[in-house]
Design a protein that fits this description.
The complex is a heterodimer of chains A (about 210) and B (about 210).
Chain A (H helix, E strand, L loop, with lengths): L1 H15 L9 H9 L2 H12 L4 H9 L8 H26 L2 H9 L4 H9 L4 H16 L3 H7 L9 H10 L3 H29 L6
Chain B lengths: L1 E11 L2 E11 L4 E5 L6 H9 L6 E6 L2 E5 L4 E2 L2 H4 L2 E3 L11 H8 L3 H10 L15 H14 L4 E5 L7 H18 L2 E5 L12 E4 L3
Parallel strand pairs in B: 3-9, 3-10, 7-8, 8-9
Antiparallel strand pairs in B: 1-2, 1-4, 4-5, 5-6
Classes of the chains: A mainly alpha (about 210), B alpha/beta (about 210).
Chain lengths: ~210, ~210
């Protein structure tokens, strides 16, 4: 449940990240989509452990520890959910005719002005889908979170792991409670996206 | 004075073809461009606007170099600010008629005058999807004119207009072009429709 509280800022942070989508190598972005979460979690664990490289440097210079901490969870979720944000936005941008940007350039507008005033407003449905799906996905994240965050109650325990935990301890009642809440939230989110987009987009078959 | 000397390889279904044009156009002249489909008429306009780079070439407008492949200089479309009327209009789906013109200029007097010329004054709050084909095409022309371009590139700009509206609009534009001293290139499949407007001809053949 902890991730739910920070899910919104994470989704917001991710949506801000879209302006960089072109310079970030797409393959790296897409990797978390196909890699087993445990593999990703393992590498993140190594990278940010306080005994090695980046983790050590962060620990010494900023006294930030990513592993088994809340910050680490956020970071891991961001990396893991990135393709869900980048994918839809990128394909939506690619579907806009190139003449739209050209028209804007011919009016003397910069790339940034064009992006802000012409491109982004015309991919709103995809933008919403991306934000909500990423949020829902972050909510349901399990493997990476378990690897990098561990399962420390009140610090790095998230809903999906709480379910797993409860089942392990034969505590089906609380497992059911967690699951039901997760199910309900995700269902409502996904349904709202579909309803909203139904009004925004016209089916090509109509 | 506009001096153009370009070479661009076109990929067509018949293989590669070279579009080669070397000519001078007096300032304030109106040139009708015609020729068979796929000959490179649109490509020619896009090269002048700066959307497409030719392999070899030189474009000078009023003594300013827009393109010189010998010295590798290239003026971006934003700095050229050539008005462009796209064959597919390239209107911004998120903007109303008025917002289109406001995006291009903040001269409200000029916007008012353009709306009168294009007979769109009572449709200012409409978005492109609620405009007819002819209205969309007129808006595309007005948007290109909004920046008071020194050079105007029009790709089939009158194809969706009924004969009456076309004659009227062409008369209005004629006055406007001489007032602004605009040099105009118009691609047309129907050279007869530009009778009395164009004073130059450019035939592009395969």
């Amino acid at each position: 449940m902890l991730l739910l509280a920070i899910g919104l800022p994470v989704a917001w942070w991710l949506s801000k990240g879209r302006s960089f989508f072109k310079i970030i190598i797409e393959a790296v972005i897409t990797m978390p989509l196909v890699l087993p979460p445990s593999v990703l979690g393992f590498y993140l664990l190594l990278a940010f452990s306080s005994q090695h490289g980046i983790g050590q440097w962060l620990q010494h210079t900023f006294n930030i520890q990513f592993v088994f901490s809340f910050k680490g969870l956020v970071l891991a979720s961001v990396i893991y959910s990135m393709p869900f944000m980048i994918g839809p936005i990128k394909s939506a941008l690619q579907q806009l005719p190139v003449s739209l940007s050209q028209a804007s350039y011919s009016l003397g507008k910069t790339k940034w002005q064009t992006f802000k005033s012409v491109l982004v407003p015309n991919i709103k449905p995809s933008l919403l889908t991306a934000v909500v799906l990423t949020f829902a996905h972050t909510l349901g994240e399990f493997g990476v979170v378990l690897m990098i965050g561990g399962n420390i109650p009140g610090v790095t325990r998230v809903a999906s792991i709480a379910v797993y935990d409860s089942v392990e301890q034969m505590d089906y009642a609380s497992a059911n409670a967690y699951s039901l809440i997760l199910f309900a939230i995700t269902f409502v989110l996904v349904i709202s996206v579909f309803i909203f987009n139904k009004y925004q987009l016209k089916s090509p078959l109509e | 004075m506009i001096n153009i000397d370009i070479e661009k390889t076109l990929k067509t279904y018949k293989g590669q073809q070279v579009l080669k044009i070397a000519r001078q156009f007096p300032a304030g002249s109106i040139t009708k461009i015609y020729g068979p489909s796929g000959a490179g008429k649109t490509t020619f306009l896009k090269i002048i606007a700066g959307f497409i780079k030719p392999e070899k070439g030189l474009i000078t407008v009023d003594g300013i170099s827009w393109l010189d492949t010998n010295s590798n200089s290239f003026l971006p479309p934003q700095k050229r600010m050539a008005g462009f009327v796209f064959q597919d209009y390239a209107l911004f789906p998120n903007m109303t008629v008025h917002e289109h013109l406001e995006y291009a200029t903040n001269n409200t007097e000029w916007i008012k005058r353009l709306l009168a010329i294009g007979k769109l004054a009572n449709l200012v709050t409409h978005k492109p999807e609620y405009l007819s084909g002819g209205q969309q095409q007129r808006l595309a022309i007005l948007r290109a004119l909004a920046i008071k371009p020194k050079l105007l590139l029009m790709d089939e700009p009158f194809s969706a207009l009924d004969p009456e509206m076309k004659t009227e609009l062409i008369n209005e534009l004629k006055g406007l072009f001489s007032e602004l001293g605009t040099t105009v290139f118009i691609v047309s499949h129907n050279p007869l429709e530009l009778e009395g407007l164009a004073d130059q001809e450019l035939f592009i053949s395969l």
